From TrEMBL:
It catalyses: Thiol-dependent hydrolysis of ester, thioester, amide, peptide and isopeptide bonds formed by the C-terminal Gly of ubiquitin (a 76-residue protein attached to proteins as an intracellular targeting signal). It is an enzyme of class 3 (hydrolase). It comes from the Eukaryota. Keywords: Hydrolase, Protease, Ubl conjugation pathway. Its EC number is 3.4.19.12. Residues 26-196 form the Josephin domain. It comes from Ceratopteris richardii. GO terms for molecular function: cysteine-type deubiquitinase activity. The keyword Protease applies. The active site is at C39, H145, D160. The keyword Hydrolase applies. This is ubiquitinyl hydrolase 1. GO terms for biological process: protein deubiquitination; proteolysis.
Length: 196
């Protein structure tokens, strides 16, 4: 029995001393990975930090209803849907605006060149940002990609579903630098909670 303790210590690694146990642990961050062209779905769930806050079924239903609302119906609305791809997703900003409205969120489009300089980054109602930018696939296809930016324990994170995991941007000043370096044509969408 006496020989068991040194073997357990080797197996378990260094024992926790008081300083190690009291050290702040990195936050647990929810991060969905990319599949198909569901980047808007992943960006929304990453922004809200929970699985299935939003579902593909919900986004598809909203996208199917949009053509009727925006184009007053007609054959064109049912045959061609510019708000999403029936097979892969690829949702547009109209779907984003509608689904966030169902969650009681307020959105505003920000000028990417101004970026975070004109925004109160410490506003308690600020949930985060959704960015939409152009991407080139295999040199042939040009599409758009959605990502979420969210502050967790005073650190801003890039929650892009195409990267392996959450990427720390840093504090407010680092976010301002990050936003100032966005490619031309990037749409920055600020998401706020509406107080009840």
């Amino acid at each position: 029995m006496h020989n068991l303790i040194p073997r357990l210590n080797r197996f378990l690694g260094p024992r926790c001393n008081r300083d190690m146990c009291d050290a702040p642990q990195p936050p647990s961050i929810y991060h969905e990975k990319q599949r198909l062209q569901l980047c808007l779905l992943h960006a929304l769930n990453n922004l809200y930090q929970r699985e299935q806050v939003f579902t593909r079924h919900e986004l598809d239903c909203i996208a199917r209803k949009l053509p009727v609302e925006l184009h007053n119906g007609g054959l064109h609305s049912y045959l061609v849907n510019s708000h999403y791809n029936i097979l892969t997703g690829n949702y547009d900003a109209n779907v984003l605006m509608k689904v966030l409205h169902t969650r009681g969120a307020e959105i505003s489009f920000c000028n990417a060149s101004v970026g975070a300089n004109a925004i109160d980054l410490d506003d308690p109602k600020l949930i985060g940002f959704i960015l939409n930018f152009q991407v080139r696939r295999f040199g042939l296809y040009t599409g758009r990609h959605w990502i979420a930016i969210r502050k967790i324990q005073n650190i801003w994170y890039n929650l892009d579903s195409e990267i392996p995991g959450p990427l720390s941007i840093g504090g407010n000043e680092q976010l301002r630098v990050f936003m100032s370096q966005l490619q031309h044509g990037t749409e920055v969408i600020r998401i706020l909670r509406i107080t009840e």
